[in-house]
Every structure is written in structure tokens, then in C-alpha cells.
Write a structure and sequence with these properties.
Strand content: 5-15%
Strand order of the largest sheet: 2-3-1-4-5-6
Oligomer: single chain
Distance between the termini: 29 Å
Shape: elongated
């Protein structure tokens, strides 16, 4: 049972109350007792066992299979330095990178550790990191364009998100086809575009090819999010 979900700045939750404090030596100070040694004990406070769960806060969450190049992409668009290596599960903890724009706007992008089939059943890194996606305003599905049928990876990722929480895969998102510099990727790109309805952004995090298009689209997603938030605030309250 969730007793509190602190997801807004300044929110607080009082889990327990401390006991009433006792009286120290100074309380018993008097003209005829200049060095009191009397004290009273305080009352015991409340005790409670709670499981605290931290969810990383970021505007955009990068979702992908292990070795899709999410960490390399985060390095390419921000100053974050997550580990990069040619083996699965290089990223064991979420990394946050800040994307800076010329108008001084900043967008926080979270590199979520690789998701595999069955992650919603706690396989791989599983539920430990799926929860971080809940806090994201929009998603970046990062696909390895060089593998056979990259669109199957996209469907598998969406399935895992839906099994974890209904509607999670349907929040605003972009499809990033990474590793465009590798052999076979250029042949897979038109096939991927035939299989999905959304816009596909092909790029190479390694060479930097077409990364600028992603940055522009990332800003569009962010601006749309801000616009939606403002519209919700302006809605009249129902009595």
C-alpha cells in the first residue's frame, strides 16, 4: 500500500511523531539551586517501518534493450559520462544528463538501464528500474537499427511498459534508430518506417550523425509538455 507519493516540489509527509522531550538541568535552575542535577526523561516517540522507494526525476526517459547505445547517446547530447562498453547491462544505475539550449532552457534526460523481455516479471534488472519511467514526462525509445527486425524490439519494449503499468507506453514519445553508421542499418531504416506509424529519427551516437534532429525534436516534446501543463492549470475547478 502506498501511503505517500511525493512528486511535487515542497511536498511533505509526516511518517511518525517524536515523543515529548524531557526537562534538563537548566529547567530546575533556581536561586537556591544554582547547580541542579535533576532531570526528567522524555516520552518515547512513534515507531513505524516504511519501505522508501526513490524514483529518478527527469523530463525524458531513454528506453531500450541492453547495448542499444543509450549511454553513448546520453554522452552525445549532454555532459553526462555514463560507462560505455560492448557488453549487456553496462548501465546498472539510472544516469541523468542535462541538455542545454541556446535560450538557456534545460531538459533532463534519464538513461534507464537496459530492459529485456520479462522485465515486468523482475527479469534482468527488472522492476528496480522500470519504476523510474513513471516520473518521465515523455520517452525516447532507443533502438539498435543494425539488428534484424528492430521494430520487434520496439513492440517488446512497449509490451514490458504496459505490463508494468497500463498506459505507460502511450505517453508522448519519440523513436530513435541508433547505430545508423553500421552495416545493414540503412537497409533496415525503410523497413522500420513501414512497420511503425510514428516519426523515426535515425542517428549515430558514435559519429554524431543526425543528433541535431533529435535535439530539435526533444525540445518540441518538452515545449508540448509545458503547454499541456499550463492548460491543465488554467482549467476551472469543478464544484
Amino acid at each position: 500500500m502506498v501511503v505517500a507519493d511525493l512528486n511535487q516540489p515542497g511536498e511533505e509527509y509526516i511518517a511518525v511523531y517524536g515523543g515529548v522531550g524531557g526537562k534538563g538541568n537548566r529547567f530546575f535552575l533556581a536561586n537556591d539551586n544554582r547547580a541542579p542535577t535533576t532531570v526528567t526523561s522524555g516520552e518515547l516517540g512513534q515507531e513505524r517501518f516504511l519501505h522508501l522507494e526513490l524514483k529518478t526525476v527527469g523530463h525524458a526517459g531513454m528506453i531500450g534493450f541492453p547495448n542499444a547505445g543509450k549511454s553513448s547517446l546520453l554522452r552525445a547530447i549532454s555532459r553526462a559520462k555514463p560507462a560505455v562498453a560492448p557488453y549487456p547491462f553496462t548501465t546498472l544505475n539510472p544516469h541523468v544528463g542535462i541538455v542545454h539550449y541556446e535560450d538557456y532552457e534545460q531538459i533532463a534526460v534519464v538513461d534507464i538501464p537496459g530492459i529485456i523481455k520479462g522485465a515486468h516479471e523482475d527479469r534482468g534488472l527488472g522492476l528496480a528500474f522500470l519504476r523510474h519511467i513513471e516520473r518521465c514526462c515523455f520517452l525516447l525509445f532507443v533502438l539498435d537499427l543494425s539488428v534484424a527486425e528492430p521494430w520487434a524490439h520496439l513492440e517488446a519494449l512497449k509490451h514490458e511498459l504496459e505490463q508494468y503499468k497500463v498506459g505507460l507506453s502511450k505517453i508522448p514519445h519519440a523513436i530513435v534508430a541508433n547505430k545508423f553508421d553500421l552495416l545493414g542499418s540503412k537497409n533496415n531504416l525503410p523497413l522500420l518506417k513501414e512497420q511503425v506509424k510514428q516519426r523515426v529519427i535515425p542517428l549515430s551516437a558514435l559519429t554524431g550523425e543526425n543528433v541535431e534532429e533529435l535535439l530539435v525534436h526533444l525540445r518540441e516534446l518538452y515545449d508540448d509538455y509545458l503547454k499541456t501543463e499550463k492548460e491543465q492549470v488554467r482549467k476551472p475547478m469543478k464544484w
